[in-house]
Amino acid sequence: MLSKEYLDTARTILRAAQTMTDQHVANQLKALAEDYERRAEKAAHADAAKALARSAARECERRVG
User: Fold this and answer.
1) pLDDT tens digits for range 40-62
2) Which structural domain, as residue segments, surrounds residue 15?
3) Of the candidates 57, 55, 6, the residue with the CA atom closest to the CA atom of residue 32
4) Three-class secondary structure of residue 22 per DSSP
5) Is pTM beyond 0.85 here?
6) Angstrom distance (rounded) from CA 27 to CA 18
């Protein structure tokens, strides 16, 4: 699942940011982690839409078949 991978990456980046002594680098990593969190949210919505479409297709096949 793509959304889980993005979320895992965001968490990993945030952990790295917390260990940084250079605040500029830490802020850049936090911004990158936020981007991955947004990607995870978009991917989750896409995953949900695909699941809904598959479910609707199965329902149509069941009714026709």
Assistant:
1) 999 999 888 988 899 988 888 88
2) 2-64
3) 6
4) coil
5) no
6) 10
Number of domains in the chain: 1
Locate 4 and state its tokens.
């889980």
For residue 33, give the 3-state DSSP assignment.
Answer: helix
Contact 20, 29 (CB under 8 A): yes
Is the torsion defined by CA of 34, 38, 43, 49 positive or negative?
positive
What count of Cα atoms within 13 Å lies in the side-chain half-sphere of residue 12? 7
- In order of 13, 44, 50, 64, the CA distances from 25 in angstroms are 11, 28, 37, 58
Could you write out the DSSP letters of every residue in the chain? -HHHHHHHHHHHHHHHHHH-S-HHHHHHHHHHHHHHHHHHHHHHHHHHHHHHHHHHHHHHHHHH-
Residue 33: CA atoms inside 13 Å, Cβ hemisphere, count? 16
